[in-house]
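Re: the request from the purification team.
They wanted to know what the chain is likely to look like in 3D before they choose a buffer screen. I agreed to run a prediction and write the result into the notebook, where they can find it.
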Amino acid sequence: MSDQPWTIESIRDALGNPALAQRFLGEINRAPAHELLAVFAKWERIAKDTVAAVERGRELAAAEARGEEPAGEWIDVTDRVLTEADRIRARGAA
C-alpha cells in the first residue's frame, strides 16, 4: 500500500481473501465504540503483514524466474517435515 492512511475499505481490499475480509468487516461492525480503535489497529497490522507477504512472494517469484537464488537465509526443513508426516501416518491419520 502507498503512504495513504489505512481505511476500512483499504484494509478489506488488502486482506484479499473474501472470508477474511468478511471476518474483518464483521468485527469492525460489531465492535463497541470504545473498542473500535483497537479492532481497527489489529486488522491494520494484519493487512500490512498480508501486503508485505504478498510483496515478498512476488519478489521471490521474480528472482526464481530470473534463475536467481532467493535472497535471505533459508533453512531446509524437508527432512523434519517428512519425518513428522511419516509419524502422523503411522498413527493412522490420512
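For the purification team: Residues 83 and 89 are 10 Å apart (CA to CA).
Please add any questions underneath this entry.
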